[in-house]
Amino acid sequence: MSDKKFEIISLTMRYWFIGLIIFITIRILMETLRTSQHHDYEDEGPFGHIIFFMVIFLSSAYALLAYKNPNGFDKYTALLGIIVGISFVVQYNLFRLIFPRMDRILLIIVDILTIFGFIMLYRFNPDFAKSQMKYFIVGNIALLFFIIFTHKSRMNVIFSYILMALGCILLLLPIIFGKETFGAKSWISIRGFNIQPSEFVKIILIFVFASWFRQDNKFREHLPAYIFAALSILLVVLQRDLGAALLYFYIFIFVYYVATSDWIMVLLAGGAATLGSIMSYHLFSHIRVRVEAWKNPWRDIENKGYQIAHSLMAISSGGLIGTGLGLGSPQVVPAFKTDFIFATICEEFGIITGFCIIGLYAMIVIRGVSVALRSTEPYKALLAFGATVALTLQAFTIIGGVIKMIPLTGVTMPFVSYGGSSMVTSLALVGVLEGVAIGTGDNNDEDDPSEEDVYEEDVE
Amino acid sequence: MQGLERNLKKGLAILLAAFILLGVYYCYILFFYSDRWFANSYNPRVKLDAWEPKVIPGDIKDRNGKVLATTIKEKRQNPETNQKQIYYYRSYLGGREQAKSIAHVVGFNDAKLGRSGVEALQVKYLMGYNNPFYEKVYQKIFLPQEVGNNLHLTIDIDLQQYIDKALGKNKGSVVVMDAETGEILAMVSHPDFNPNRLEKVEGDVLLNRATEGFYMPGSIFKVIVAAAALNNLEGVSSITFDCQGAIEIGSQTISCYGGESHGQVDLNQAMTVSCNGYFVDITNKLGKEKLLKTAEAFGFNQDFIFPDLKLAASSLPLKGSVSAEKLALISIGQGEVQVTPLHMAMVASAIANDGIMMEPKLVYEVVGRNGRIQQKLQSKIYRKAMSRENAKIMQAMLKNVVDKGTGKGAAIKGRQVAGKTGTAEINNGDSEVRNNAWFIGYVIGNKSKIAVSIVIEDLPAGQTGGKLAAPLAGKILKKALDLGY
Which of B4, B126, B280, B424 is a Cys-bridge partner for B216, taking CB atoms 3.0 to 4.6 Å apart? Predict the structure, then answer.
């Protein structure tokens, strides 16, 4: 009977959830559009109520999951939902107080996406969610660190060489010490922690590209950056981490073009990439399999098409508002807690929710690029733009793969997918964006002379 | 730095465009395909669990309410728990041998082999996934076991079984549909199997030839060529061709059936006697683009996405460069053109229905618990294949075929039958040429026009559409008339 009770409650709660999700998304959209033109963050008005509704969403989802327990209502789960909810409020307000000029809506979007991850992971297995919460705490430290680091960083040549070396070493580690999982050799294991260095190198890439391309220099003066870009892509290809290679390429192309307007180079690089993909299609069987599975996953469901076919079946099983939290069977989807988490959210929260999530990532694009546009320094603008590209195109790549729009490449869904490396890197990238954001508007701000001094000193 | 702001805005536009594309694709693909993905036979969510089913699938009935498939409960020994438990399984036509006739259209739902046919595609209704919120909650609270909905098909089991017998041991397929509403009255595929005894299934018997069997159409393709000629050539009725029994195209000679020379023929006469030379000649005059355009209006090269059934796309490879020899072969339905019997029934229906092709329908209604009708068949126009005037001309030509041409065998006394025969020759590499005999056509019935499409495959040389398929079509259409259609 307790099973049926839970099912009925969950079926009913679908309407509550979908209402909350639509409300939150529309509120974020309204605020995104309203404030992205503004230059003064102080004037953005209170968004506290959006956070409040997000916390309600999280807590009620956890309260529902508390019913799922066969031994009756699980008070611990319900309590955890409230505590985690309150800590989101605390996190939001802390950052808001420390950095009054930060882009608060960006932080809100990140938090709602994280909340989706927390709910789904707890539904799969409470332990996943608990680990993810730890990663989120670490990620917030990274967020804080990168806000300050980005704000203060001026980046000189020597430092960027150090970063390049660090990046190459990080990428070499899994090739030497890593073990193969899912055909890719992109993980290293330190004291039981599995770390994916290619995630962290994304941050390095953004800093390196921004610092080299900030000056409108001649081609050969950018040369070290090109070499680093090519080398890092080569190294992740050697790790067989196709998703990372694609993402590095995107970051390079986008940042390079925005900095230099050099579309000839972009075409050349694009041509080289196309040639490279065609060659690798013919050379490597695992890439051929991916493309075949994308073209028609139903032909060979039991092998090649297995992942995509199960993903599509999960998405289509939910209908508009989902089967109800806890009532679907998302665990039959392979990699349900990492790459395919989007499919599982669609199954239990519905097609509308999936659409809202796509919209939330699109809003990160708007917020991120408007931060870049506000920045008066080219270096900072490129940093912000690079971070935006890294975050959003990663989301695009995995959602597109999961819904069979583009061939599947295994990358995580930022903020939602289970995994420490991904969570910390994604929050670090948000830190980069926020770091740029708190530096904008400095020029016409007399209230805070100390920061202005720092800025001028550094320019000189 | 020059132009940074402008470039950032460009970047914003590209990234946003990517996400808009993602959103649009997401909506589009789910709108059109989500029911098919869900119905996939590998979807574990809708598997019938023999021992502890979450939901008992509903019955499938024919249009007159005869039960075609139902779920049976039985006490059996569970090998896993070693206890007597209730075992659930699907039974077709009361478990009898006659279930063979509906094997492909109704399909099966088996714990091991998965699902097929209506059992697969309509699993959403059968398992009650379409139930509204209050119905789901009601069932959970008040019913000991959740139940799915019943499905009434447009199939008439009497006609279906008659066709099954009439087709006998022949391989092939027959589709009968109501040309004006698109309702499929019968859909038979041979060889068949007994869905109650799936353990005996072997070979390609599971293939539903009506919807997934690819056949060369042979001379029935001339209907499409004639439609293209009517649409595109001014004064086509005055164009004649002097048939000498054969026509040379490039390095290849195409002869008429039996090398017979038909003399001076116009479109009408050429259709009546099925003169190959005329159609090769008229296709040359038309050009491949115009033929392709008309054929696509008739549904060739289209992904058929119908809610009621899965239909493989018919292909007419005329894009890009096509040699004169290939085009000549295609114009008489040989070579690389491939069709399915159901699609040909749709073509016949479109002509009968004055040029309007209806969407094929298989689900008559969905009936929920307590007999509440949840969904009822609504006829839908699929596409406009040709103009009303040209369709009338075509109807008269096809009537001639049955009245005095190759399709005489299909005539029914006192009734207006129209149609076209076809014989596709298959060279399987080795010496012997095998024939596929075709007939497509329709009869003006008591209430509506009834279209039929017949293919009998793998026949020895000499067995033609006129000799074999046309008389069978006559018998089947007569039975349909007798049943009141």
Answer: B424
| Chain A (313-352) residues lying within 8 Å, Cβ to Cβ, of chain B | 313, 315-317, 319, 328-329, 332, 351
| Interface residue A307 vs chain B (CB under 8 A) | no
Which chain B residues are Cβ-neighbours of A7 within 8 angstroms?
A: 140
- Give the N- to C-terminal CA distance of chain A in Å, as an integer: 73
Question: Cα–Cα distance between B105 and A182 in angstroms, integer?
Answer: 41
**Residue B224, domain member (yes or no):** yes
Q: Would you tell me the crossing angle of helices A75-98 and A104-124 to the nearest 10 degrees?
A: 160
For A378, the closest chain B residue by CA position comes to: B1
B54 within domain boundaries: no
CA-CA distances (angstroms) from residue B336 to A253, A289, B9, B326, B397? 45, 29, 50, 8, 26
Within a domain: B385? yes
- In the structure encoding, which two tokens stand for residue A19, read together? 């209402």
Residue B239: domain span: 218-363+380-482
CA nearest A350 in B: which residue? B30
Residue in chain B lying closest to A329 (CA): B45
CA distance B194 to chain A (A): 26
Q: Provide the 8-state DSSP code for B43.
A: -
B420: tokens are: 């076209």
CATH of the domain at B399: 3.40.710.10
Question: A253 — contact with chain B (CB < 8 Å)?
Answer: no
User: In terms of Cα–Cα distance, which of A29, A148, A106, A92 is closest to A369?
Assistant: A106
Q: What is the ipTM of this complex?
A: 0.92
A400 touches chain B (CB under 8 A): yes
Per residue of chain B (485 residues), give pLDDT as tens: 558 889 999 999 999 999 999 999 999 999 989 888 998 888 888 887 788 888 899 999 999 999 999 999 888 888 877 888 888 888 998 888 889 999 999 999 887 788 889 998 999 999 988 888 888 899 988 888 889 999 999 999 999 999 999 998 899 999 999 999 999 999 999 889 999 888 877 778 889 999 999 999 999 999 999 999 999 988 888 888 888 888 888 888 888 887 888 888 999 999 999 999 999 999 998 999 999 999 999 999 998 989 888 999 999 999 888 888 889 999 999 888 999 999 999 999 999 999 999 999 999 999 998 888 888 999 999 999 999 999 999 999 999 999 988 999 999 988 999 999 999 988 776 667 888 999 999 999 988 999 999 999 988 888 888 889 999 999 999 999 999 88
- Residue A325 to residue A83: CA distance in whole angstroms: 20
Per the listing, tokens 């029934």 go with: B345
Residues in chain A closer than 8 A to B26 (CB atoms): 354-355, 358, 399, 403, 405
Q: Is residue B273 part of a domain?
A: yes
What's the DSSP call for residue B237?
Answer: G
Chain B residues within 8 A (CB-CB) of chain A? 1-5, 7-12, 14-16, 18-23, 25-27, 29-30, 33-38, 40, 42-45, 129, 133, 136-137, 140-141
Please answer yes or no on whether B22 and A400 come within 8 Å at the CB atom: yes
**From the CA of A6, how many Å to the nearest CA of chain B?**
11
CB contact under 8 A, A4 and B140: yes
Question: Cα separation of A199 and A186, whole Å?
Answer: 10
Q: Is the pTM of this model over 0.95?
A: no
- B307 chain-A contacts, CB cut-off 8 A: none
Check CB contact under 8 Å for B37 and A313: yes
- Number of domains chain B contains: 1
Cα separation, B42 vs B305, in Å, equals 20
